[in-house]
Amino acid sequence: MGSSLLRAGLTLVVAGVLSLLLAPAVHLVAPTDSWIDLAAAQSLDTFDAISENLMGGGPVDITSKWLSDSLRRTGLTVFNPSGWHGPQSWTTSGSSDSGFFEGWYYKCVTTAGRTVVLIPGGIYGSGGNKTFAFVILADPSAERPEDRVQLFEYPIDELVSTKGPNGQWSVRVGQSVFSPDAVSVRLLDPVTNASVVHGDIRLENSIRWPASILLPDVMGWFAWLPGMECRHGVVSLDSDVVGEMKIRGKAVGFTGGGKAYVEKDWGSAFPRTWLWCQSNHFICDEETPGPWCQQSATLLLSIASIPFPSNEVEIFRFRGFLGGLRVGDTLYRFATYSGAVIERFEATQRGAATVSIRTPQHRLEVWALGDMETAALLHGPTPGGRFEPFVHEMLGAELKVRLTRRSDGKVIFEAVGQHAGLEIESKEPGGLSLLK
Q1: Which contiguous run of DSSP H or E holds residue 316?
Q2: To which H or E segment does residue 277 belong?
């Protein structure tokens, strides 16, 4: 009798473990929102603490930092995507001979809603294309149209990176220094030598993307694959900004409510087709407020046409996507590597997009609207190390976002993201239809 009970108990345990392991895959094969699909979602809701580690699909408590911090302290590149990698890194596609780029993206928004973007980095050209370091300034509120985007070029040896313990890093370009915690910017007009931007800001209370051995960063297990065309890293999902800059002689203050978002990219070129959107300024509908209205939030979503295994040896292309919605201390990840599925994708290069993504447990819906006519025209890397002005970034976009729990339809988050960044680009046959 005792052995029978033991066997029965073991059978139940094994069946429970197998069910939990297989549940995330049910939504890939079962009819959407069918009883078996929703039953699997409900089982994962019951075991959130475990399901967050299954394929990276469950909600993550980002206040639990010990594993992330321990992995970053190893100094290994794969766990520290935000620092300088360079054209010789194993994580890199391209090279100093065939073309390579690396750059950071600092989006800072004042309390009054003014957006200033700084993009430091380096481009290694091939076949006669230039090699140089750079800083891009995007200031859509500038009075003169010609001042809204400016590219500052420097010799490549004026890009100097430093690496410290615990994954700390900084990069100097010319007289400006950028790090995860601070920016000291000194940009001079290349003709008159007059000051264009001068200032120092600190990034405080920064929220980082969690790291694990299987999922080292926002790219998930794709981070372990060498040679991908364009790699992505999140430096800070949300930071408080303290300090000020003087832009063309006028003070722009951030203290007392300024916010920042910081990310980076590196590789051989940007994708040929992509959608990218981001906001960490959400407001709720006053008529239907929810409990989430008392919490800060960040949305990041990127969908792209990706060559595999690399753009140099392309066997096939696939639609890849990554991102997440952070609500307070919880991060909901939506990515190819987590088994998420894009249910709906509609977009035009005029500045509008609708995206619906489901995971085993949740459904994320995003309605994005920007103004292409007022977009900042930014330089971006193309194959061969060319640096061309083709990226239209809409910095005053709005993102309506809704997150629901699939098992019972409960709304977990619903708000409108303001001061959002939105890019919708395609430079290949088939265009945006490749992302459907």
Answers
A1: strand 314-327
A2: strand 273-279
Distance, first Cα to last Cα, the chain: 58
Instruction: Say if CB 102 and CB 257 are below 8 A apart.
Output: no
Where are the alpha helices (H) located in 235-319, listed in sequence order? none
Phi, psi of 263 (to 5 degrees): -145, 180
Cβ atoms of 339 and 37 closer than 8 Å? no
Region of 280 (left: φ > 0; alpha: ψ -120 to 50; beta: rest) is alpha
Residue (of 369, 363, 385) closest to 38 by Cα position: 363
* Rg of the chain over all Cα atoms, to the nearest angstrom: 22
Continuous segment of H or E residues that includes residue 411: strand 411-426
- Counting runs of H as helices and runs of E as strands, what totals does the chain give? 4, 24
35: helix, strand or coil: helix
SS3 334: coil
More confident call, 222 vs 26: 222
Confidence of residue 17 (pLDDT cuts 50, 70, 90): very low
Q: How many residues does the chain have?
A: 436
Check residue 166 and report its DSSP letter: G
The most confident of the ranges 5-19, 149-163, 301-315 is 149-163
Kindly indicate the confidence band of residue 90, based on its pLDDT and cuts at 50, 70 and 90: confident
Collapsing DSSP to helix, strand or coil, 359 comes out as coil
- CA distances, 310 to each of 190, 269, 318, 323 (Å): 37, 11, 11, 21
Q: Contact at 8 Å (CB) between 337 and 55? A: yes
Q: What is the DSSP string of 198-241?
A: EEEEEEEEEEPPP--SS--STTGGGGG-TT-SEEEEEEEEEEEE
Angle between helices 2-29 and 35-46 (to 10 degrees): 120
Residue 130 — φ and ψ, nearest 5°?
-70, 150
Q: Look at residues 401, 392, 216, 394 and name the one whose alpha carbon lies nearest to residue 299.
A: 401
Peptide bond into 309 cis (omega under 30): yes
